[in-house]
Amino acid sequence: MWRRLSERLSVPGMLWLSVFAFTWILSAYSRDISRALDAKWIIKYPPAWRLSLKNDISSAMQWLIEDASFGLFSFTDMTRGIAWAIDQPYNLALAVLSTGFVEGLGQEAVEVLPAISWVAVVFLVVAMGQYTKDWGLAALVGCAFIYLAVFGQWDSAMITLASILIAVPFGVLGGLLLGIAAYKWRWVDKLLRPILDLMQTIPIFAYLVPILFMFGFGPVSALIATIIYAMPPMVRVTALALQSVPSETVEFGRMAGCTPRQMLWKILVPSSRSALMVGVNQVIMLSLNMVIIASMIGAGGLGYDVLASLRRLDIGAGLEAGVAIVVLAIALDRLSQAFAERRVDLMRSNRNRHLLLRYPRTILFVLVGAASLLGGYLFPILQSYPESLQFTTGVFWEDLVRDININFFDQLEALKTFLLTGFLLPVKRFLIGIPWPWGLVVISFIGWRLGGWRLALMALALSGFIVANGLWIKAMTTVYLCGVSVVIATLIGVPVGVFSALNSKADRIVSVIIDTLQTLPSFVYLIPVVMLFRVGDFSAMIAVVLYALAPAVRYAAHGVKSIDPQLIEAGIASGCKPLQLLWRIRLPLALPEIMLGLNQTIMLALSMLVITALVGTRDLGQEVYIALTKADTGRGLVAGFAIAFIAIIADRFIATGAERLRERFGLVKQEN
Amino acid sequence: MEIPVKLSCQHVWKLFGDGAEAFLSANDNVPSLQEIKDAGLIGAVRDANIEVREGEIFVIMGLSGSGKSTLVRCLSRLIEPTEGELLLEGNDLRKASSQEMIEIRRHKMGMVFQHFALLPHLTVLENVAFPLDVQGMDRSAREIKAREVIDLVGLNGREDYYPRELSGGQQQRVGIARSLAVEPDIWFLDEPFSALDPLIRREMQDEFMRLQAMLHKTIVFITHDFDEAIRLADRIAIMKDGAIIQIATPEQLVLNPATEYVEEFTQHIPRAKVLTVRSVMAVERIEEGERIDADARIESIAKKVVDSGRSLPVVDKNNEVIGSIDREAIINVLVGGELSACGVG
Questions:
Q1: Are B133 and A251 inside 8 Å of each other by CB?
Q2: What is the ipTM of this complex?
Q3: Which of the four, A121, A537, A608, B185, has the lowest number of CB atoms within 10 Å?
Q4: In sequence order, what DSSP letters do the residues of B45-67 get, joined into one string?
């Protein structure tokens, strides 16, 4: 029947238009229809039909914690063991950087050795900057850390840094080993691939809940969540890096008579060192991002400061802590990138020198550390940066925001109202109004048209899962917020990307901005938005747009740049004007790439949506967040899966569409 | 006097694709090229028979896709042959366990790669010492040995450089030094000079000949360059579509190409470079005049004969006269006229 219908409407545009029109009518009159048919189930999925999945998961969790046993030890023993193993190095790092070594408890605690002084830490990062690259980098990271001291963020920053110092080695090592396993055994690779895909789409909050349940509230849970979150890219990078070692190099290793172990550690891993360092950089940045989110389950530090001030709506404090995170992120990012790019031959020159001369920085650092430690007893300024010399800009920001809100209230409000009533709310009403049975039909239909019955079946199964768990309305709210933000991000991002591809000066500026946007932890976006627009869908939308903008710009720019120059020349030779060149050659050919960018934008938007639950949305993200605060594993995971499934459906639809476009243009498929 | 065979391969097949082994035995080990194609397989090496004699330079020459790289990897068991027998010094290589293979590769084989395959994170010295390191030799001993071979290839003074700081020619010298560090019995070179500029390539060929004159290794040398093959080889195997078409000395190839395909290569080769005096001399024995070595290439004695203006005696290894050669014969070779060939079969 479907086939005949589609054949009769030979113009596909007509078909889509009529589907949309019909959906719109159904959506607008769904209430009346359900009343006329006396079938309330059309608009509201009856609770009686719901799967009890979330309760099942919750009770499975309960069983795991209370009764599960591996014979010699119980599940709880295992989680305690893991927690203990992570707690030890973390406490050490925390003592070194922040609390100092103390003996005794509570009132009787006596400080045996203070934490490493701020002077020594600043010296250390400067030395590392100079060692890995040059004095420019040294100055940058030095200033960044001095900033932390001067603006009173030192203590929190050191707690955050301690978490990073523990999370990163675990993440890197775990990722490396898993990546190696995936490289060596096909079945591991096959097993890991879908898990990694799911990990990328499932919102972070969703797995915070089970972790919270297993490891309790506290820094260890936060660290475990961070490690789990930051590991996947390292796994991918490792597997890819090992695969791209030239086959001749591997053959040489075999001809030299390497055992499998020698092959791995003497040939494969070292010769893909620079690629692996890119993965390390990713782990650092993701850890930093996650450490903040993990403050919800007990990580202290800067993330906690931001979270607490967001909750109090204390704009100034939140902004300061947020900026401190950014500063820390930039410093760590540049340092680790410099490590990745550093040329080994710099080390050659001092190979044969005396031991003391070979490690001048290390020795100087030990000296400075000891001096500031001893001097600290006489002059406390050396040990910890004095409060009297600290600045705070909190008041300034608060005044600024107040001024903006007083002076520009009408303009901001007008903009907000205009977008809300003109765009956001109609879309929301339309999407939420769609009766779920028709929604399923439309989703399957789109899948069928794009990729045949397989895709249709998959889309139906995934969206059916959402419906069967009674999350249809919330899912549609998510789709609405995500959709609206993605549309706006694309409308801004694609023109900017195309422009920057055509103009090298603009390209430089844009890429700096985009790089910075990508370095910022997702949390930070919330602060200015809440300051200006308070809580609600609109603020969430702005934050999501900011966070998800980067890929739209990047892919559009890359798509336009990578068009075969001969085609452009052919266009010019056939007499195209610049605008014709853009519309008729550049944009159509860049379209598949732009669609991939759209795909990435959607993924980022979905992951950001969960965080915007903090500013009062009513979608699946909120569902996950509520589950987190109630420590309801089942509810959190089910809602998390629902978000992941939305992401997967969107991903497959767009990827299939982009693939068809490529085929039509005769472009070769590129690996991404 | 027969020189002993170092490495031999008999009826070696390598088919890529699923079910290759079953297919091969189902066809009594002799499927045709068409049958292989119809089965959806790729016949990279088909029924190769080679005997590499001790101390000779055995060149496998073929265009890209002819299967020469696959064949050399079958010889070292980097690629497992689908079928056939491999004998190294009479021992069956295919029966060696992976542990035994590691030992054989560590001590008996060396290999030089087209794109050098140097390890980017190690210095020249460490790269050359790497095969010894893998064997577990201690640092000072392996560095002494490595410095020795680095001297041998003329790279002293660059021990502490990293590969990327060297030119292509220098990098391949490192590759050569590294493959020689374990003093292999058999030396595989897989298009070692193909990635180099023509001038450097020539220089490296000379260097290679100099090394071989000192070391007398048993060599399997892969190339797609017929000129290079002619220049270096004691014997050449020509490959096409995975099969060996002809195995012969350069001279025999030029004189008696087995197929039109081989002839196409030999046509453009200056004969004076290939032919020996023995193959163009007259049987008439004369005594007077400067004696000419029967095994010398025409190119090297042409000027001498032409300048003398008369027939000169040709002598064999034992300095016994076996014939004579005159100006006309030389000029015939130089201008590519008809050969008054004799002696060579």
A1: no
A2: 0.85
A3: B185
A4: EEEEEEEEETT-EEEEE--TTSS
